[in-house]
Amino acid sequence: MPQRRSHTRYAADGRPVWEQVLEAWREAWRPENQTQTAVFACALLLEVVATVFGGASQGNALSLAAVEVASLPLLFVSLYLVLAGAGPKGSALPLALLALIAAVPVLQLIPIPASIWTRLPGREPVMQILDVARLGRPSLPFSLAPQQTWRSLLALTPPAAMLIGGLLLTDYQRRIMAACWLVLGVISLGIGILQLLQGPDSALYFYDITNPGSLVGLFSNRNNQAALLYSLMPPAAVFAAAFNGDFEDRRTIPSLLAVLYIFIAIVGVAATRSRAGIAITAIALIGAAAIVVRGGALQRHWRAALGVGVGAVVAIGAVLLFGLGPILDRFTSGGAEPRFTGWPLVIAEIQKFLPWGAGVGAFQTVYLSAEPLSDVSPIYFNHAHNDYLELLLETGLAGAALFAVFAIWFLARAMRIWTSRGGDMAAASTVIVVVLMAHSVVEYPLRTEALAVLFAFACSTIAVWRPGAKTPAS
Fold it and tell me: What's the mean pLDDT in 374-386?
């Protein structure tokens, strides 16, 4: 006699999924696993708080303070564990590089004698101001904007905490965090859609300085919203690649939702009308496709590749059909682009302050003091809109050297990951790093805490990956 199919989902070992989840929960809180679980819980807390409250780069002290406070539990716990010797193999260089990065603003805040700072390049205006005010030659910090340098040091806390804590996570915990980011990305996009429907006066614009009438979601501007959406496409591809055509497999629903995310992310980036976001989305899509097919996945899971491909094609077709006009208007609008016209002045100021720089966070102080009167307008240059130029202006050759070390480390790790089998989440992390660094050529996404924390998580995943390491099922 035919039996009615049960609606209870079963795991691979034949037990109900809810029973397996309950057992996993009990296992996580066993005495020997409590420390690991505490790190994971602190990392999840920071992820959520950073994404919800860390959508602006400046001028929102309360929300930024919330992110910094939320990072302290993870920072203290993970730093203690690393110093106690719990750091995994491969973490030494990233941790040393992080320490050197933090040391730069710390050293720039230390007062130095007048006999030293008066000889530093670019300090002539400071001496002229002191002479006019008849204040003599006191000891001063290296930085021309010490308050901003201090704020920049505090802003380093959340990504530093995520980098250190991320080194201690298991592969399964990383996948949970990636899935949580995908949910947060969809939530931010949903808020952005409501912003468009309600118009420029919508109460859902959470920041005073924003792009009213545009889809910005949880962020202060459309570029960072686009950056979040395209950065999460590679992790979504990891989940999508797990689909093998068996609808009874417990990985089917996450895989189909991941394909759906790629679809809505493409449409969402187009809706932001961020020119850089639209261009870099192409890079993210190429990376996502490479993750699906790497290691023979195209042959084993051709349904996953087909699903991702169809979703991307349909999304791009929808964009071209309904949104091509507004997008072209953004690319073909007349007038000079302010960020490009400002770069020559930034380069000139870099030359004045080489080889030491002007101080972390001092960009606005330096730029406004050198900006020609003919360029003064209600729209001011708060950042260089090129993080590499701004890094060189603020930190000089020291910052350039640290970035070179990071780039060499990253390229070496990425090459090893992509030439080995397995490690799909690590491969996705390399794409996250690439797209955010590419966006930094024309913007400053990593000065936003939400994206800086995601970037740090990707770096930690890259650092601890090892060839042949087994990855738990999603």
Answer: 72
Helix (H) or strand (E) holding 118: none
Q: What is the Cα–Cα distance from 90 to 392, expressed in whole angstroms?
A: 28
386 vs 365: CA distance, rounded Å: 17
Provide the pLDDT for residue 63: 86
Residue 181, classified by CB atoms within 10 Å of its CB into exposed (0-12), middle (13-18) or buried (19+), is buried
Give CA 341 to chain center in angstroms: 27
86/458 Cα distance (integer angstroms):
20
The set of residues, in sequence order, having a beta carbon less than 8 Å from that of 243 and lying 6+ positions away, is 249, 251, 252, 255, 256, 259, 301, 303, 304, 307
Structure tokens at 171: 């592969």
Task: Fill in the amino acid letter for 184.
Answer: L
Rounded mean pLDDT of 271-281? Answer: 86
Of the candidates 140, 100, 98, 135, the one whose C-alpha atom is nearest the C-alpha of residue 120 is 140
- Under the banding of pLDDT at 50, 70 and 90, the label for residue 328 is low
Kindly list the domain boundaries of the chain, sorted by start residue. 17-132+142-335+382-464
For position 316, what pLDDT does the model report? 61
| Exposed e or buried b per residue across 345-384, where buried means at least 16 C-beta atoms within 10 angstroms of its C-beta | bbeebbeebeeebbbbbbbbbbbeeebeeeeeeeeebbbb
Cite the DSSP H helix spans in 82-232.
Answer: 92-108, 114-117, 124-133, 146-155, 157-166, 171-198, 222-231
Tell me, what's the pLDDT at 473? 36
- Give the orientation angle of helix 157-166 with respect to helix 61-81, to 10 degrees: 30
pLDDT digit string (tens) for 124-173? 888 888 888 888 888 999 999 999 999 999 999 999 999 999 999 999 89
Report the C-alpha gap between 381 and 342 in whole angstroms: 8
Q: What dihedral angle (degrees, nearest 10) is formed by the CA atoms of 133, 136, 139, 145?
A: 20
Nearest to 181 by CA among 195, 166, 197, 160: 166
Name the packing angle between helices 302-322 and 324-332 (round to 10°).
70
Query: 142 in helix, strand or coil?
Result: coil
